[in-house]
Amino acid sequence: MTRQTTVADVLATHDIQNVLVRYCRGMDRMDRALTLSCWHDGGTDDHAPLYSGSAEGFVDWLWPVHEKMISTRHEIFNVQIGVDGDLAGSECYYRVFLEIPKDEQVFFLIGSGRYVDNLERRNGVWAFCHRQAVFDWTRVVARDAELDAMALITPNNPEAPPTIGTRDETDYSYAVLKQFYAQ
User: Fold this and answer.
1) Helix (H) and strand (E) counts for the chain?
2) Which of 1, 86, 118, 170 is least enclosed, having the fewest CB within 10 Å?
3) Residue 9, SS3 per DSSP
4) What is the spatial distance between Cα 25 and Cα 168, in angstroms, rounded to a whole number?
5) Topology of domain 7-176, per CATH?
6) CB atoms within 10 A of CB 111
7) At 170, which helix (H) or strand (E)?
8) Over the stretch 28-50, which tens digit does the pLDDT of each residue have?
């Protein structure tokens, strides 16, 4: 029998979804503080065989790896969250797109899997105690194989420059969202 969902459960679920999305944003904008805000002190991460250990150690290991990449995009979907008071568990599917230069070529690594998280609310704040990455599949494609998007879609204003994302606080999104994130 499923228990009745309470208003507190809905609010907790909302807060936890914000943690999940904040992780993706922190990773893709290379915002270390934002990324680490997703874990409580002493939190752990298991992306084995890539990394297994403290959350802070994970970010310390990952930052030099990501800095060598041209771009990254972390996406989550199919989010499932269970709440019981100040404890919660979640599973969300992820898809990651990494643009990686290697040996004078550029490759796209596209991976998909699930993040399974143990979360707690401490002093009113939800964050990970432990994150477990579950790998489902990975593909690597040479960028040379891609077709320019403009060859497929005719723009109505081809002279207008696109807004290009950056991997730091100069990204356009910070102009809109920075005031809403406590750093």
Assistant:
1) 4, 6
2) 1
3) helix
4) 10
5) Nuclear Transport Factor 2; Chain: A, (3.10.450)
6) 17
7) none
8) 999 999 999 999 999 999 999 99
